[in-house]
Fold this protein.
Amino acid sequence: MIVSMWMIRDLVTIEPTTPITKAAAIMAQRHIRRLPVIEQRDNGTHPVGIITATDILHAYPPHVNPFAIVVSDTSQTHITAADIMSRALQTVAPETPIYEAARIMRNMKISTLLVVQKTKLVGLLTESDIFRAFVSILDSRQGGMHITFEMTKEGEDIFGFIAPIALRWGVHVVSLISVEKDGRKMCVVRIAGTSVEAMLEELWHSGHSVLNVLRLP
């Protein structure tokens, strides 16, 4: 799966000169917590920053709720998006694998990635979108079988191990996830087809450690 399958395409954006009072009103009306800041040039929308609800809150006195329907405090009307936006943007391309986007978010400790194609803003990817993507991989409503196992043979490639077995039994590999933690290589494979039990039996005798089997209706 790639970023373009899960990114937000219907973007709400503002410009650097937009007052933060207007930005707060947009967030409140659209029920969103972040706004890309863009400039129009070269027939495209180019990101120059991003502001979050937290950025706006920090720009107001503690007793003021800038997202209220009516804000009586007008002392911040002179502050613009350019004054508070983050300029250190983290971007990915639409064709970036979703797991790579998740890795970037984790390593950078951020919750949003701007999706850029040839310097033009085409989408937004948030932690919620990443979560939706991974839930879809493990969606039990699609039936089949989930097998969790530990790769105990050192140096063996997960794909090289699973693919021949699935091919031998005519089983469809719906998804395959591999995670290394504390020196252990844990894998979750979701399979579907008429011979899933036969494939499971072979996995039991493969020398690797089958930890959990979930049969899905």
Summary: Residues 61 and 73 are 9 Å apart (CA to CA).
